[in-house]
Amino acid sequence: MKEKLVVIGNGMAGMRTVDELMQLAPERYEITVFGAEPHGNYNRIMLTPLLFGAKSIDDIMIHDFAWYRRNRITLHCGEEKSVVSVDRIKRRVTARDGTSADYDRLLIATGSLPLMLDIPGRDMEGVMGFRDIADVQAMIEKSQTKQHAVILGGGLLGLEAANGLMQRGMQVTVVNRAGHLLNRQLDGQAAGFLQRQLEDKGIEFRLGVTVAEVLGRDGHIGKVRLSDNSLLPADILVMATGIQPNIGLSQAMGLTCERGIIVDDHLQTSDDRVYAVGECVQHRGELFGLVAPVYEQAKVCARQLAGRASGGYRSLLSATMLKVTGIDLFSVGDFEGGADCQQQLLVDHAEGVYRKIVIKDNIITGMIMYGDTSDSGWYLNLIKNRTNIAAIRDRLIFSPVELAA
């Protein structure tokens, strides 16, 4: 008799876990998946090429509907199929339309929600997040008849939205509270390179300010007032100000939650029949927003569900490898450094290349690469292995060199 596994969340984290589980124990579970979107599992990272027209929805599908049928997985998807309650005593989940499923094991992979700031006027039509296919479709539709887009947030998501809407023919202004772009991934100098290149493409920037109020008429946005009291025309306002773990259902179930759902090293929640993975979880105080750690969690969780318990999940040093509007970026570790650190810089304005290495006690503690990231793997290994670089210190910034055995 097969056990019943129910998965709440049809995104990349939950379905990667199912993928891994089916490699390990294909006959162990009868699997039912509930997803809030009316699609199969798709690659959320590819929403940007979908926005500017380089990809179609079919192109970004990881598992289409046929895949679920082939693998005898029951998929309930769409807003009415969103799970609204879980009875942990009866071990039953129930969706908005009354669809229910019993479980022996439950996997929660509800992901995250866009952080929609509480700005006066934010409920007007034209104010949106950038999180799913529906958001992208709404942006494309607006871009066909409207002219002015304001993006709130100068992080990766904001810059990708800005580039996509610009390529759709809109006039785009990015508003960012911080004094420079990508302030979590870049220092001021590298961010300056990026800003100039994006300005050359036609994107405008307002830094060190935020949106204070959304103005419009007949319920539709028309302008935004910034915190310095200036006005910008705005037919769309895209809030790209971050994400927050989607934990409402887990809180209602009575699972232990702080900022995310608390999980142990085996991705088990406070209920030993319930597991959780992805952007909704909190592990050893840490939240997650990048694909690499989430996929690692999926592996560990799948081994647990398959009854092949092995080493637990350990958060690894996460490097950020980005391609912003065709510009390559790489950053890892502490790239600012303190008074007890040394810095090596390579700046080539003509080639648009910037490289910064932060060193402490002959160990690289952080690094930024801008424009040319072809050697990033070599540097990342030095950082992860805490390699002593004393012997190659004078050549370190230029390119990989052999370390004496």
Automatic annotation (TrEMBL):
Record domain NADH-rubredoxin oxidoreductase C-terminal: where: 319-386
Required co-factors: FAD
Domain FAD/NAD(P)-binding: 4-292
Domain of life where this protein originates: Bacteria
Family label: Belongs to the FAD-dependent oxidoreductase family.
PANTHER family tied to this protein: NITRITE REDUCTASE [NAD(P)H], PYRIDINE NUCLEOTIDE-DISULFIDE OXIDOREDUCTASE DOMAIN-CONTAINING
Name of protein: FAD-dependent oxidoreductase
Upper taxonomic lineage: Bacteria, Pseudomonadati, Pseudomonadota, Gammaproteobacteria, Methylococcales
